[in-house]
Amino acid sequence: xxxxxxxxxxEPERPDPSRGSRVGTDSDDRGRTDxxxxxxxxxxxxxxxxxxxxxxxxxxxxxRGSEVRTLATVGAFRVxxxxxxxxxxxxxxxxxxxxxxHLRDLGLVRTMPYVVGKTRTTLVTLTEQGRxxxxxARRDHDRxxxxxxxxxxxxxxxxxxxQLHRAYLRAAESxxxxxxxxxxxxxxxxxxxxxxxxxxxxxRGRRDSDGRPDREQxxxxxxxxxxxxxxxxxxxxxxxxxxxxxxxxxxxxxxDVEVTTEHYRGALAGAKARAGFTSYRAAGAxxxxxxxxxxxxxxxxxxxxxxVLG
Length: 310
Known about the structure:
The chain is 27% helix and 20% strand. By secondary structure, it is of the alpha+beta class. The chain folds into 2 domains: 2-152, no CATH class; 168-309, no CATH class. Strand 11, helix 8 (266-275) and strand 12 form a beta-alpha-beta unit. The longest helix is centred in the N-terminal third of the chain and has 13 residues, at 65-77. The protein is globular. The two termini are 16 Å apart.
C-alpha cells in the first residue's frame, strides 16, 4: 500500500475530554479514534481543558490535556511540524499563541522555522526538561513502553524526519476500520540500537575486542525473523516507523512505515521497495508496497512490489 503525504491532515473524531482529569486510566478503550491520544495514554498527567499543576522534582508546571498530548506526540516522533499538532481549540497549533508559546515559555519545547518541501512551517522538539515531565509521569514500566526523545538527532535528515508523524496518522487511519488498538510507535533509532546490541553482544566487556561483530549470517536471519524485519540481499531492513497494535481479537501485529524522499534512488530505493514497507512520499509518487506482519497481520503484496521494481 503506497500513499502520498497530503499536507491536509485528516481530522478524526475528537474524544470526550470530560472523562476524568488525568491521563492514564489503563482502560482498553476501543471507542477512541484519535491516534494523537495514544502517546499520552499511560501518563499520569492532566487530560482536561483546564490547566492543572504538575510537580516534577523541584519544578511546578501548569498544563492542560492538549499540551500534554503535544508533549507526548513530539517526544514520540522527536520532531513534528506545528501544523500537525492540535491546540486546545482543536485547530492546528499556532507557534505565536495558545499551547505552543506556553510550553516554550515553560522550557518544555523548542520551536524553529523550517521549510518542508515547499511549505513553510515551524518544527517542534522536546527539551530535556520536557522529556523529564513525560518520564516522571509514566504509569508503565515494561519493556514495550513508548520511548520519548528530546532534541534533533540528525540535522541533515530533518526534512525527512519531520514527515514521520504525518505518515503515522495516515497509516493509523487505514487501521481504524479494523478496530486496531495502537499501543506505541518505534522509530528506526530504537530498532537499529537493539540490532547493534545483538551484533556486539560477544564484544561487550572484552578489553581484547576489536569491535567487529562475529555473528553468523544464520544468526542474523534468525534475529530479523524474531523481530519481524525483512532481509534484502542479506541485509536487515529497518522501517522509519513501526506501529505496534492489537487486532480486534487481541492478537499483536505491526505496521511498518517508510517515508521516502527524492534521495531514495538506485539500490536504496530497490531495497526499501522489496522490504514491503507501507511507503509514503511527500512528492506524491507511488514508491512502495504494504507490509503488516505479526500474528493477525498480513504480508506484502508482490504485485505492488513488482510495479515499483519494474
